[in-house]
Amino acid sequence: MATEFDKILDKCIDRINGGEDIESCLADYSEHADELRLFLNAMTQTKSTYSFTPSNSAKAEARQRFNNALRERQQRREARQPFSTRFLGWSRVWATAAAVILIAIVGYFGLRPVLFPSDNTPLPSPKGNFVFLISDDANAIGDFTSLTLTISGIGLLPEGSENWIEFEPEVDTADLTLLQGEVSQQIWRGDISAGEYIKVFIYISDVTGELKDEAEAGPVEIKLPSGKLHLSVPFQVSADTVTWFTYDLTVVATGSSQNGPKYILRPVVGESGAVTEQD
Question: Mean pLDDT of all residues in the chain?
Fold first, then answer.
């Protein structure tokens, strides 16, 4: 039983690192939900704490928001005695964990204007130094007659910076059934600042799939973690060469014969990355 749990935990960690949320993973392994939640919360809290270093002013703003949230929570506790009684029964460990999570949430939304500035948008250019492509890694794609993504944005994080570079794709839809193997689709080309980049996001507003199986014909549920997918893949961009970055995706079957077909869309780190060449 311990071996089975370890394997499930490893799968959940991989899914969360690929951009999926904790609740989606817990729903697929409900029999281990309580144990998994403890380990996965600890992992995501650690990642949130050390993912970046905010400025002093940003820390102060986040601390103020956190204090305001605590005061509001105290007022609600006083107004609802049953909740207060349950809250006081929590262990110190869970109370500390709740505080860490709240700080991370407040800090993220408080700092989002800093992380995603609106005045740092590169413009497309047919001879630009950066090309962004989408491709698909074979997994459960063979189950589909079509699997279409609607891409609303792309984000790049320069090394040593907290300011993301974001831009909208020139081509905003891609059918992954047409992008298998070495086939890829260019969705943007333009000029971005030369330097090292360490993370890539794609924002997906919609994903629809049609199954081949006649018994299951029609639209099928495809989970997309948080409306975006991210990769931690370092790459270099130069002003005098062209960098071609391929973002590889895969769709994985997670359903059962009892619950029907379900699928998750994930990035593929091992197949994603950049190549550089002279234009």
Answer: 78
